[in-house]
Amino acid sequence: MLKRSSSCSEGPAPADVVITRANDSGFGLPPAAWASTNPLNSKTDSRTPAIMITDDVRLGTNVLIHHPQLVNLYGCTIGDDTKVGAFVEIQKGAAIGDRCKVSSHTFICEGVTVEDGVFIGHGVVFTNDMYPKAVTPQGHLQDESDWEVLPTQVKEQASIGSNATILCGLTIGRGALVGAGAVVTKDVPDYAIVAGVPARIVGDVRDKHGNA
To answer: Where are the domains of the chain?
Structure first.
């Protein structure tokens, strides 16, 4: 594991990258401050892929990105002390809070806001269009002007199990638990446990762990 800051320019190719110093805005240094020095980006060695984290990503301090050459992050915000696993895509306009865990193979699209302390399991998929189409009525490929992003909010300390699918335009409440493989089609109340397809309330987190 290699810690990156603006003064870090040497060291072995890392499996993990840690952003260790915030800039004046309170967020971590942009990827350009360290990606250009990462041996994984060397143009002289075609065997090592470039890091797929764009310069407009806003990273908090001590963000841990496992295998930075195996993620796709662009135009998003990731808060302090958050961990991001391999094969994760986080799109522009998405925001991840502090002390979150985003497990491998997860897709977080534009319009998704994840508050502090949220756990997201492996292979979780968010959506942002209720009626997606590839083309306009005239048969042309759609662009951003042809559809509306429906925002989704995951409140603090919620947990989402592996392979869950979260439809757009809804809220997952504080401390709620979404079961593995669930398809969430409507709002989840605070502390509710939901499971199934479509997801239904099957319990309350506070009954399992005491008062939250």
So the answer is: 2-131+145-157
Helix ranges (DSSP H) in 29-142 = 32-35
Identify the band that residue 147 occupies on the pLDDT scale cut at 50, 70 and 90.
confident
Q: Which residue has the tokens 């189409």?
A: 133
Assign 46 to helix, strand or coil: coil
**In contact, 75 and 91? CB cutoff 8 Å:** yes
Residue 68's SS3 state is: helix
Q: Which residue has the tokens 């919620």?
A: 158
Predicted TM-score (pTM) of this structure: 0.80
How far, in Å, CA of 189 to CA of 21, rounded?
Answer: 37
Domain covering 2-131+145-157 assigned CATH 1.10.4030 in the classification: no
